[in-house]
C-alpha cells in the first residue's frame, strides 16, 4: 500500500514538472527582454521610414510647385505664339488677296489679248511675290519664285502656271494649311497641359506620402507606449497593432510613384 502511494506521488511530481517545463517554454517565447529588443528595432526602422516618406513627400511638393510655374510660363509662351500666328495668318491672307487680284488682271488681259496689260500685271505679280510671298504659301499655290523671275520667258511661265487650279485656289480654303500656322503655339500649349497634369500628379503623390507619414507616426506612438504596460499580454497586443500599422504603411508607400526628378532622383 505504501509503495502504491509512493508511485502515485512520484507520478504527480512528474506531471507537475512537465507542466512547469511547458510553462517555462511558453514564457521563453517573446520574453520581456525579447519584447524590448524587437520594440527598439521596430522603432528604429519606423523612424527611418518616416524620415524617408517625409523626404520623398517634400520632393513631390517641390516638383508640384516647379511644374505649376513651368506650366504657367509655357502657357504664356503658347498664348503669345498663338496671337502671333493669328497676326501672321491675317497678313498672309492679305498677301493672297493681292496675288489673287493680280492673277485676275493677268487672266482678264490675256483673254482680251491685251499683251501690254498682261506684261504689266505679270511684272507687278513677280516683284510683289518676290518681296512678300512666304515659302509655305508659295509651296501651296505652286509658285516658283526663281523660275518666274529668271528673265527667261517669265510671262509665259506664269500664264502656264495660272492654268493649274492650285494657282488660283486660295490656300486658306484648306483647314490643314491654316492649322499649320498654329502648330508651334499648340505644341507649347500641349506641353503646358502635360506639365500641369504632372504637377497635379505630384500634388496627389505628395498627399499620399503625407498620409504614409501619419501611419508611420501612429506606429511610432504605439511602439513608444509598449513599455508602459506591465502585463506581457498587453505589451504583445500593442506591439502587434504597431506592426500591423507599419506593414500597412509600407505596403501603401511602395504603391506610390517616386518623384520623376529632384533630390537623389536627378
Structural account:
The protein has 266 residues and is mainly alpha-helical. Helix content is 82%, strand content 0%. The protein is built from ten helices and no strands.
Please give a quick description of this structure:
This protein is mainly alpha-helical and 266 residues long. 82% of the residues lie in helices and 0% in strands.
Tell me, rounded to a whole number, the average pLDDT. Answer: 87
Q: Beta-strand percentage?
A: under 5%
Q: What is the element string, with H for helices and E for strands?
A: HHHHHHHHHH
Helix content: over 70%
- Counted up, domains total 1
Based on DSSP secondary structure assignment, what is the total number of beta strands? Answer: 0
Largest sheet: none
Distance between the termini: 90 Å
Q: What would you call the structural class?
A: mainly alpha
Integer-rounded radius of gyration: 43 Å
Question: What ranges have pLDDT less than 50 throughout 5 or more consecutive residues?
Answer: 21-28
Instruction: Output the number of helix runs.
Output: 10
Question: How would you classify the quaternary structure?
Answer: single chain
Amino acid at each position: 500500500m505504501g509503495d502504491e502511494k509512493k508511485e502515485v506521488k512520484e507520478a504527480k511530481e512528474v506531471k507537475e514538472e512537465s507542466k512547469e517545463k511547458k510553462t517555462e517554454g511558453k514564457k521563453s517565447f517573446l520574453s520581456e527582454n525579447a519584447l524590448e529588443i524587437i520594440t527598439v528595432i521596430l522603432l528604429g526602422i519606423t523612424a527611418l521610414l518616416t524620415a524617408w516618406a517625409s523626404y520623398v513627400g517634400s520632393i513631390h511638393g517641390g516638383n508640384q510647385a516647379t511644374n505649376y510655374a513651368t506650366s504657367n510660363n509655357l502657357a504664356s509662351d503658347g498664348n503669345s505664339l498663338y496671337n502671333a500666328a493669328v497676326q501672321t495668318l491675317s497678313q498672309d491672307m492679305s498677301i493672297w488677296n493681292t496675288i489673287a487680284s493680280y492673277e485676275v488682271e493677268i487672266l482678264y488681259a490675256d483673254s482680251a489679248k491685251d499683251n501690254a496689260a498682261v506684261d504689266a500685271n505679270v511684272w507687278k505679280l513677280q516683284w510683289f511675290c518676290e518681296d512678300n510671298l512666304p515659302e509655305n504659301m508659295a509651296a501651296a499655290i505652286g509658285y516658283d519664285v526663281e523660275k518666274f523671275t529668271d528673265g527667261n520667258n517669265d510671262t509665259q511661265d506664269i500664264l502656264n502656271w495660272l492654268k493649274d487650279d492650285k494657282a488660283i485656289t486660295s490656300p486658306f480654303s484648306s483647314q490643314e494649311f491654316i492649322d499649320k500656322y498654329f502648330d508651334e503655339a499648340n505644341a507649347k500649349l500641349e506641353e503646358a497641359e502635360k506639365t500641369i497634369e504632372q504637377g497635379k500628379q505630384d500634388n496627389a503623390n505628395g498627399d499620399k506620402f503625407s498620409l504614409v507619414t501619419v501611419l508611420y507616426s501612429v506606429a511610432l506612438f504605439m511602439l513608444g507606449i509598449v513599455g508602459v504596460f506591465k502585463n506581457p499580454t498587453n505589451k504583445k497586443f500593442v506591439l502587434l497593432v504597431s506592426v500591423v500599422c507599419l506593414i500597412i504603411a509600407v505596403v501603401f508607400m511602395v504603391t506610390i510613384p517616386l518623384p520623376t526628378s529632384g533630390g537623389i532622383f536627378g
